[in-house]
Amino acid sequence: MPADRNSPAEPPGAPAELGAPAAAETAAASAERSRGRLVLAGGLGAGALGCSVALLATSGWLISRASQQPPVLELAVAVTAVRAFGIGRGLLRYVERLVGHDATFRILAALRSRVYARLERLGPAALPAFRRGDLLARFVADVDQIQDRYLRIRLPFAIAVVVGVLSVLGAAVLLPAAGAALAVALLIGGVVVPWLTVRTAERAERETVADRAALTTSAVELLQGAPELIAHGAAGARLRALDELDRRLERSAARSAWATGLAAALTALATGGAVLAALAAGASAVEGGRLDPVLLAVVVLLPLAAFETVTGLPVAARSLARVRESDARLAEIVAAEPPVTAGSARPDGVFPLVLSGVGARWPGASTAALTDVDLRVDAGRRIAVVGASGAGKSTLAALLVRFLDPSAGTFTLAGRPVQYFDPDAVRERIGWCAQDAHLFDTSIRDNLRVARPEAGEPELFAALDAARIADWVRSLPAGLDTPVGERGTRVSGGQRQRLALARVVLAGFPVVVLDEPTANLDPPTADALTLDLLAATEGRATVLITHRLAGCEHADEIVVLDGGRIVQRGTHDALLAVDGPYRIGWERERRDDGRFPTGAPERVGD
Ligand SMILES: Nc1ncnc2c1ncn2[C@@H]1O[C@H](COP(=O)(O)OP(=O)(O)OP(=O)(O)O)[C@@H](O)[C@H]1O
């Protein structure tokens, strides 16, 4: 981040977490809180697998002993035990799944909140470093992938160790040679095979994560740009590129599946080897009188059951690479430098809002977007910021609403550097109506309530009235419940901006920054909206950013930006009186507007 002359040495309450911890630590912190549940899930899982092993061993003994036709009472305990182990296995497995998933989802929810909080701090200035679809993949798929660390890796490995050791001890008590053979086979199935899987599948797994993210990114881009691509006949090429990405993902998934298949074959071989070894050792021990023949079935069946503990481990090990890759991708978000210094204080008042010698530079940009800007906003004052495209107007808006830090100069609210304050608290006082205001895919009512959730119908209509769109809303069959479509596609550009304006009015900010609210409208509609905007925000400090000069005559001060610097400032009359960019722009706008057929601008819902 560029040096910040304006930064206080140490803003009070600047969150310590801004020190960019790794995502793994973020997940670990969440896991810490669910440790008890994870341990319980491990215990239940070990119990369930223990029941499986005991079930097979007891059944083996029962069948062998029953063949000798002893008194039924002698078998009663074993029969009951078989039932108990059978029921216990299912029951414990069910509860283990509940507890394990509950713990994991809690960890994921906490992790997702933390990642979202990070994203929020980065946005919007630092987010362009990530592509939209890629961010989506990180936020959804990568966070989801982290669940494997607990559900598929740590729990199964811990359970395998406990049950594996107990099974080996059990077998060794009956016949030490069988115990030794089982230990060796379990080490092969539980350590060597998973290790081999990791070695074979690691690259493929990493590629799978990257390919899946690339596929999401391209699919999102393709869907968003579909109308333009179809109109330009370029959709076919993009679809083919997407197809190629899909095939790449298929290839890496196939390579990784091949490793899984190999692991399954090796595990089956190790199981078979353990059973054969137990059979050979058991048969010779029976022959030598060192083992009761009835126990031979137990010795032979035990490895079969014990191997259940390690069969899932190669798949678990395989997902280790995926988890690491997702971790690394989340760590990039966590480590990305926030574009603003955040304190924790809440501003009591914002006036006067003063920029003094302020410069601004966007992350990654080589040149400053603003240089040496002075601005003072007092209560109720209305300032118009005008200038050509690229002059730095939106950058000024970003500075005012704390999306960007000044790289030079000072920005103070009521005399205190803005870096002392929580940016969210600043934004509760300095409202922003964007150039392409976002409407959510829900009703008009819910879109307005983003600004004030508890607002009742009279307040909503008062805000709509101020934005001169209330009559249109009343005329709709569903009124306030009319859906606006995704990104407001079911309403016109002018209606969208007016709804956004109503939202800003409803929020009641003491300072309102209106960033090119008329940018995409035809001149008559734009001018009508500008007048309505100024009327709706009457009495509030307003910074109207615009490339059109019509309406500026109502501002207390006009600031003309060019190349990131203020080149003129004053009232409309004063600026018209001198030969300068404002007068040139004003005269050109009058002349050019004269070329358009002019009609009465629509006032309601254009
Ligand atoms: N998010 C961003 N990241 C990097 N650079 C940016 C970003 N937004 C603007 N810039 C750069 O800052 C400079 C000023 O742009 P800005 O958008 O502030 O101008 P503007 O006067 O609002 O233009 P317009 O009227 O076209 O919106 C330009 O050089 C632009 O490339």
UniProtKB/TrEMBL annotation:
Transmembrane segments: 38-63, 75-92, 155-174, 180-198, 257-282, 294-316
PROSITE patterns reported for this sequence: ABC_TM1F, ABC_TRANSPORTER_1, ABC_TRANSPORTER_2
InterPro entries the record matches: AAA+_ATPase (IPR003593), ABC1_TM_dom (IPR011527), ABC1_TM_sf (IPR036640), ABC_CydC/D (IPR014223), ABC_transporter-like_ATP-bd (IPR003439), ABC_transporter-like_CS (IPR017871), P-loop_NTPase (IPR027417), Type_1_exporter (IPR039421)
Keyword Ribonucleoprotein found: no
Bilayer topology term: Multi-pass membrane protein
Segments of this protein annotated with the region Disordered: 1-21
Subcellular location: Cell membrane
Keyword annotations from UniProtKB, A to Z: ATP-binding, Membrane, Nucleotide-binding, Transmembrane, Transmembrane helix
Superkingdom: Bacteria
The ABC transporter domain, residue ranges: 353-588
A Pfam family matched in the record: ABC_tran
PANTHER family assigned: ATP-BINDING CASSETTE SUB-FAMILY B, TRANSPORT ATP-BINDING PROTEIN CYDC
Protein name: Thiol reductant ABC exporter subunit CydC
Source organism of the structure: Cryptosporangium japonicum
